[in-house]
């Protein structure tokens, strides 16, 4: 008999009790997701993330005291090992400044609250696999913004020239494909490799570049000219 897979542990951070309750109802009907705690402000979210070690923190932006962006920055600054919490920003506000500030703070995903319950559940599963995620309607905006001359910077990654020179030719190929949005299965097919091998290449590439996930990888690649729109 196969071993059971532990559920994805989720921490909810939102200052509205009814919103947290709604998220809990949506998530707890899923067999593979467990809500391990709730926080009504950013300070509490940081403390609970340290104590509970969730897989994913579902983070609102506008909260009293320490807001969601500052809390995200504190949580991700302490997340240095695989399995440390990833932060998914979920907000009502479709604002570029929030989106880019969240990415700069180290968030691995960004969704709007007008999405569907199914999209939220899938986002949490994607994040728990160690992949970043943006709502589809935000992806083109991010690429367009970070790809243009004089674009803002997230500060993601180590010194790009040195880090890029450290990549093997295969890791460089993987970087370019990740930056174009390819999944591990798609990269494996394109490079005629096994998915386990691709996963190893992705992990080493992220480590060498000082990047947390695929969202940061896309931005890094466009910021530093590894790929260009339409290329």
UniProtKB/TrEMBL annotation:
Keyword Transcription regulation: yes
CDD domains: LuxR_C_like (cd06170), REC_NarL-like (cd17535)
Residue(s) carrying 4-aspartylphosphate: 60
Span of domain Response regulatory: 9-128
GO biological process, any: phosphorelay signal transduction system
One Pfam family cited in the UniProt record for this chain: GerE
InterPro entries according to UniProt: CheY-like_superfamily (IPR011006), NreC/VraR/RcsB-like_REC (IPR058245), Sig_transdc_resp-reg_C-effctor (IPR016032), Sig_transdc_resp-reg_receiver (IPR001789), Tscrpt_reg_LuxR_C (IPR000792), WalR-like (IPR039420)
Domain HTH luxR-type: 160-225
Record-linked PROSITE patterns: HTH_LUXR_1, HTH_LUXR_2, RESPONSE_REGULATORY
Family matches, as PANTHER family: TRANSCRIPTIONAL REGULATORY PROTEIN NARL-RELATED, TWO-COMPONENT RESPONSE REGULATOR
Protein's name according to its UniProt entry: DNA-binding response regulator
Organism: Micromonospora craterilacus
